[in-house]
Structure formats: C-alpha cells, structure tokens
Write a structure and sequence with these properties.
The structure holds two protein chains of two kinds. By secondary structure, chain A is an all-alpha fold. In chain A, about 65% of the residues lie in helices and about 0% in strands. The chains are: A mainly alpha, B alpha+beta.
C-alpha cells in the first residue's frame, strides 16, 4: 500500500466513524442539554454551588454568569501558578513568572491553550491536573453552554429565558465530558500514554549517557485536551510526544476525539429547533470546508515543495516516523479547523503552502467544525450573515429557522464577526511597529508568517503555533493574553445578546418568499460567504507571508 | 442578608470552580492513576520502562542517542534520527527545530554565539555524515559535496534585474572551494564571516546540482522529529545501517536483518501510520544476541 493510499484510508475511516457516531452522540447531547431531571451528584453540586436548577436566566444574567465563572477561574489559575512551589507535587519548580501566569491563566480559561512554556520544565503535576486540566473541562463546557443558549434563542419564542448557565455547565461536564474522558483515558493508557505521579526516572542509557524518563498524570489530561478542543500539551511537544501520542492508532483516536463533539452539535441544533434537516445543512457546510482543508494540507505536504523538503526528499522535518507526512497533515488540519491547537508535528517546518492551510483554517473563524460550542455558534452567526446577504439580493426581510433577522440581530452578528480579524491584524501590526517581531526564529516572509500565526491562533482561541517564535517576553505574553481574552468573551457576549433578541421574537411561519436554509443552494452560499469574508479580510496578510514564500 | 447580585454571581462561580476542581482536578485524575497501577496496565501507565539485569535503561517509547561522550555515533548500535530536544533525546527539554522550508542561509560569524546553521545545511551535513558512516552515497539535491547548503547570493546591476555583477556561495567560507566555479559567466566567491548578503541585496538562489532525486540516505535520517524523542527510524534507514552494525559485532548480516524485522512495527490495522523500527529495543536485542566483543 502506498503512503498516499494509506493516508486516504486514514481520512476515510475518520469520516466513516464520525458519520456513524454524530447522530447517536448528538442525540445524547440533546437529551443532556434539554433534560430536566437531575442525578444525585448534580443535585449535590447545585446545593454546594447554591443555585436553583429550575431558575431561568435572561441573556444578561447568563452572560454575567459566564463572565463571573471565567473571571474567578482566571484569578484562581493565576494564583495557583504563582504559589506552585509551596504545593504538593511541584517537582521543585519555581512559581511561574507574573506575565507568564497571566498568559497561561487566560489561555486555559478561554479554551485557547496557547503555551509560552514547556510543560515538563515549568508546571508541577498539581497545577497541571488540578488547575490546567480542570479548565480543559470547564472551558469546553462553557463553549457548549453558550452554543446551546444560542440555539435556545432560535428554538424558543416570546421568552426572556435562555436556560441556566450553572445547570448547563454541570450537566455538560458530568454527563458528557467526564464519561467520555474516562473511557478515552483508559484507551490511551492501554496504548502507552503515561498516567502516574512520578517526578521522573533517571536512567543510564545503553551508551552510558543519562536520560530522565518523565512522568505525570498525562492520560487524564490528554483525553480532555482533545475532546474539549483545548490543545494544551502536558509536555512542550504536545501530541508529538510519545507519552502523549505513542502509536498510529492513538493518533487516530485523538483526531476522532477532537472532531467528535463539534460534528455532533449540528445534530443538537436540528433536534432543538425541531428540524433535523437544518442541522444537517450546518453539518454539511462544516464537512465541505473540513474535507477541503484536510485534502489541501495533505496534497501540499505530500508534494513537499520548497528547497529543504526537496533536498530531504519529503516534508519530514518536525514530523514523527510513526505518523509520517500524511497522518501529521490530517492532524494539523483537524486541530486548526477546531479550536484545539494540539500538534503532532511542527507546523513551522511545514511547506509554505502546507503551513498556510492551518493558518487559513483558523482565519475561517474555526467554524468547520470549530471548537466545542464555539464552532456551532460561529457557524450559526455565518448562517445569519448569509441569509442577510441573500435577503439584500432579493429585497426581502431575511429569516433564519423561523426568526426574523432584523437590524438588531445583524448588528450583533456583524460585531461578532469583526472581533477576531481586528485583533489579528491590529496585533500583527503592533508587533511589527514595536519591533517585537524580532523574536521570530525565521527571517523574511516566514518570519511574518510566525507573527501572523501567533496572533491568529491567540485571537481565534486555537493555541497552535509556528513555534519557532519566542513568546516568553512581557510584551508577547501580555498582548497575546489580551487577544485571547477579547477573542473569546466579546464574541460570547454578542452571541448571547443575539440569542436574547431571538428568543423574544415570535416565530415567523415560513412563506413562499422564505429562503429554504436546508437545501444545497444555501449550504453552498454559506460556504461561499465564509470563504469570501476570510479572503477579503486576510488575503493581503497571507500574500506577504506564506504566499510570498511558497509561490 | 441578601447579597448584591454581582457578588452572588461571583460567589456561585467560586463555589462551582472549587467543587469542579475537586471532582475533575483531583478525583478524576487520581482515580485513573490508581487504575493505572492495576496489573496489565501498570507497565504502560508508568512509561513502558525497559530493564536489563534489574537496571532501568530507558523507555520503549522514548528514543535515545547512541553516541559517545563526544557526540560521535557508536558504530555497533543502530543510530536514531537527529533530535532537537536539548542536547539530543532529552525528555526534560522536548523540542522541534521549527526551521522553515526556506531556511537555507547560514549565519556565519567569527563569534560562535552568533553562528547558526540553516536547516538546509543541517540536512546536508547529516546526509554526508550518515553516508560516510554507513558507506553509502551521501549526496542530496541542493547540497554541496562538503555538506552545506548549495546556495548562491546573486547580485544584479539593477537589484532584481540587469546583468549579474557578483555571485557568492553564502554557506561556504575559506578554506572551502566554491561548489561552482562560475555561475552564468560570473566567478563564484566564497562568503566572508559576519556579512549579510541578503540585506546587501543578493538574490538567494539554491542550486539543485546533479545529486540523485532519490538519495541513498533516507529522509528520516536527515531530519529532526517533532518531539525530539522519536523512538523510531524508517525501515529504509535501518537497512543501510545493517552492514555496519553486523561488521562491528562480527555478526551475520542476515541475523541482524532478521532482528530489524522483529523490531519493526507495521501500520496499525494495515493503514494507520507508517512502519517504524524501534531503535532502543532493537539495540537491546542486539546486545543480547551479539554482546560487544
């Protein structure tokens, strides 16, 4: 079997698995977020937190709950890192420096998991498992909760209530994330992923050298890192590390976990609004963009253009033998199509165009299928913009799944869309005007790509990197921290405001003039709008970076 | 007493975070640590450690350098891939090189601190060294025979256009011989330390040369992995090392080749990943079968 055939089969097997699982798993998700009966453990949690699970929240209260929870999480995580030297399992590491602790706290709370540090030489086991990994769970739950609140806005009418954030957070965590994480962690452990509290085992190698075999609660963190589309590696080299991703089949499993929830959420959307076909249309948009990206990354990487790949004979720098080029490229596409940012190979050493596709994936706004929750709400905002554009063309009031898209709704959608491009382009420009781009490892167009990638990754809450750039400076940690914070919570607030506005409306029955939003025509239009918006926004920047290098 | 709403939100948030930290940050990972101690799983959960005569010599999943104290390859062992993790295969400093596909110009300086090799030159130097060690052709496209990147800075009269005024082989300094004597009629000069020929306006032009498109030294032998800990090499890279290892150990090459086969993992399920040879377990098996003379 040739390398290409094996790579194609790898992708096909993922597609088949996702197609098979997204319905039953989406139905399970649907029951979790729309059920009302509480399990005993959930009732205990509600009592300890002090909330009434039956109370409905307005969009404002829902948003304030999200923001309060995230603010407390950031402060807690910041403090945790600053005192880690006095805690159990610190492995003797110093407290994390203030700008670094700020960056990491924001990074994990915003589901970004950008990492300026090396896990194995900075973070003790306790901070990793009781600080960072906890945020891997809850930041994912927050994303799903916000998406569900938006869908409730479409599904409900003449109400101010969007559900209860504390209930959503608890149910999503306890009934979805935790059970899948336990199963996934056991599978990974069977594959060789480490799960212990060892501070490291010193060994003498065959030739008399020394080596420290690291330990840690890796499997428990690895699984939620993928399932929650977080991406923050236990170790510096993330899923390239044999202790995080030891075999070709764990690699497959990790990609599957990354895509599982994002591709199941359109089903939840369809079920909640009572029109499954609308969910399929959204899933179709995601799938088209995702397959195009996976295919292009594979084609460019396997072609191996560029001086060094030509000299080597393959684009193998920064890639592992057990994954080789194709399975690495597929992982790279999956991790940037979602908000994951885990890597099993180093994008900085990709061919110019092969490395551009992950960058473009993030610039799409991570909607294909996007991060857990954030992918669905991002895609629904794009659908709203699409019906608006279509409405302008034919001169009718735009509607989407029975709700009118008026000036208030389109304003929130437009604001949502503008946040990340503003942060990316302003941030990149700021790095160059202040001279902070000088920390890039590579020079010329590739150096620009490194800076552009950093801001794109942070603002879209991805967390992967063209990792040659040194970002452990006060300026970089502060700037990227701000991008991550604004790139997460401004869109969340706009989405919830949009949801509140939609929930108050009466449903508009479909009429002759309503644009059907479940047909291939609409699917094609959303794909077109997504690509055109991104191309208009980012083409000049891409032309100076990867396109200049690769063409 | 009724709390102001904003404070109530934050108190609920704090309580929720603490409850979830106990559940997700302590109970969940520690339960899995406990499960990992069960027989059947404990070896893997503890890092797949390998022991020889009761002494731990490494992990089956983590690669090692098989070099002597000076960093030279120990010829009786199969060699691992190049590594960017610390001084090589250091699990406390895992890293990739992160050098891009057009990293082709070395920074040559009289100050060793400022000197750095481009990815292309690293690839060329490794290819040449492996070729010499294993007695195969170490030539590669875009590489000079002395093992650096074959790259010219071409200066033209009007910047991007016009006649060629000067040509410098940017990765070669005295006492080397330029890999080409003339380029389009203009003699090729050697580079001088501490000169930036790109900033001076030279157009960077890598030269393909006449090396075979399919070099004898495989791709994984000249590139650093993503983790810096790659435990595998390709079967092709193992193949070119068989003769040397067999000779050094006085072993039958066929026997060595058979051991390579035993330590090769194929694609999982026939289509996941690529085949790889686990270098550490292979070398351990060699030490058992053919102890060093």
């Amino acid at each position: 079997m040739t390398v290409t055939t094996a790579g194609v089969l790898f992708i096909l097997s993922l597609v088949v698995a996702l197609v098979a699982v997204h319905r039953p798993f989406g139905d399970h998700l649907y029951r979790v977020v729309s059920g009302t009966r509480s399990a005993r453990v959930e009732r205990v949690i509600y009592r300890l937190v002090g909330v009434d699970p039956a109370a409905e929240q307005s969009w404002g209260t829902y948003a304030r709950s999200v923001l309060a929870f995230s603010a407390v999480s950031i402060l807690f995580l910041y403090g945790f890192q600053r005192v880690q030297d006095r805690l159990w399992l610190s492995l003797g590491f110093d407290p994390v420096v203030p700008h670094g602790a700020w960056n990491t706290a924001v990074s994990f709370v915003t589901n970004t998991n950008w990492q300026w540090y090396s896990g194995e030489s900075t973070m003790g086991h306790l901070v990793q498992m009781a600080g960072l990994a906890v945020q891997n769970f809850v930041s994912a739950a927050v994303g799903i909760a916000v998406a569900v609140a938006l869908v409730r806005g479409f599904a409900r009418s003449r109400t101010g209530g969007l559900g209860n954030f504390w209930v959503d957070l608890t149910r999503i965590t306890v009934r979805i994330l935790l059970p899948v994480a336990v199963l996934g962690a056991l599978a990974l452990m069977a594959g060789g992923v480490v799960q212990n509290l060892s501070a490291g085992t010193d060994v003498t190698t065959l030739t008399g050298g020394t080596q420290t075999i690291t330990g840690g609660p890796v499997a428990s963190q690895e699984v939620i890192k993928e399932l929650g589309t977080n991406g923050g590696g236990f170790y510096n080299v993330n899923s390239a590390h044999p202790f995080e991703n030891p075999t070709a089949w764990t690699n497959w499993l990790e990609i599957f976990l990354i895509l599982l929830i994002p591709f199941s959420l359109p089903r939840v959307f369809g079920r909640m609004i009572g029109q499954n076909r609308q969910g399929y249309a959204i899933a179709a948009v995601m799938a088209i963009l995702a397959l195009a990206s996976v295919a292009l990354t594979n084609v460019f990487e396997l072609a191996g253009n560029g001086t060094v790949p030509q000299a080597v004979g393959a684009a193998l720098e920064g890639k592992e033998v057990r994954f080789d080029v194709s399975n690495s490229a597929t992982f790279a596409a999956a991790t940037t199509l979602t908000s994951t940012g885990a890597v099993n190979s180093f994008h900085d050493s990709y061919t110019a165009l092969g490395g551009m596709i992950p960058l473009v994936d993030m610039m799409l706004g991570e909607v294909a299928p996007g991060g857990v929750g954030s992918g669905l709400y991002g895609m629904l905002v794009l659908a709203v913009i699409t019906v608006f554009v279509a409405g302008l063309m034919v001169g009718r009031t735009p509607e989407y799944v029975g709700k009118k898209i008026g000036s208030r709704e389109i304003r929130f959608a437009a604001l949502y869309f503008l946040v990340t491009p503003t942060l990316v382009l302003a941030g990149t420009a700021a790095a160059f005007t202040t001279g902070n781009n000088s920390t890039a490892l590579n020079v010329g167009p590739h150096g620009l790509s490194e800076v552009l990638y950093a801001f794109t990754s942070a603002s879209n809450n991805n967390g992967s990197a063209f990792a040659g750039i040194t970002v452990n400076t006060t300026w970089w940690n502060t700037a990227l921290g701000l991008c991550m914070l604004l790139g997460r919570f401004l869109p969340v607030v706009f989405v919830l405001a949009l949801a509140g506005s939609l929930a108050r409306q009466q449903p508009t029955p479909a009429s002759e003039g309503t644009l059907p939003t479940h047909r291939p025509l609409f699917v094609g239009m959303v794909v077109g709008v997504t690509v055109v918006l991104v191309a208009l926004t980012f083409l000049p920047a891409l032309a100076l970076g990867p396109l200049a290098e690769g063409l | 007493m009724r709390l102001p709403t904003w404070l109530a939100h934050h108190l609920a948030a704090l309580r929720a975070l603490l409850v979830l930290t106990v559940l997700l940050g302590l109970a969940y990972p520690l339960a899995l640590v406990a499960v990992g101690q069960l027989p059947g799983l404990s070896g893997r959960a503890d890092g797949s450690l390998l022991t020889v005569d009761g002494r731990t010599v490494g992990s089956a999943l983590i690669g090692q350098s098989f070099t002597d104290a000076d960093g030279n390859p120990v010829p009786r062992y199969f060699q691992s891939r190049p590594s960017a993790a610390g001084d090589g295969y250091d699990p406390t400093a895992t890293a990739a090189s992160n050098l891009g596909p057009e990293s082709v110009v070395d920074t040559i300086s009289t100050d060793p601190e400022k000197t750095s090799e481009s990815l292309l030159t690293q690839v060329c130097a490794r290819s040449r060294a492996v070729g010499e060690l294993d007695g195969v052709d170490g030539r590669r496209p875009y590489c000079t025979t002395d093992g650096v990147g074959a790259v010219l800075a071409v200066f033209r009269a009007d910047g991007l256009t016009g006649r060629i005024t000067r040509v410098v082989s940017v990765n070669q300094t005295a006492p080397a011989t330029p890999f080409l004597t003339v380029w389009q009629g203009v003699p090729v000069e050697l580079a001088e330390p501490d000169r930036d020929y790109v900033a001076a306006g030279g157009l960077i032009t890598p030269v393909r040369g006449d090396a075979p498109a399919d070099p004898a030294v495989p791709a994984d032998a000249v590139t650093a992995s993503g983790s810096g800990l790659d435990p595998h090499i390709s079967p092709a890279y193992a193949q070119i090392q068989v003769a040397r290892v067999a000779r050094e150990r006085g072993a039958d090459p066929a026997m060595v080749r058979r051991l390579v086969g035993e330590h090769t993992t194929g694609r999982s399920l026939g289509f996941l990943g690529e085949p790889g040879v686990n270098v550490l377990t292979l070398n351990l098996a060699l030490d058992r079968a053919f102890p060093a003379r």
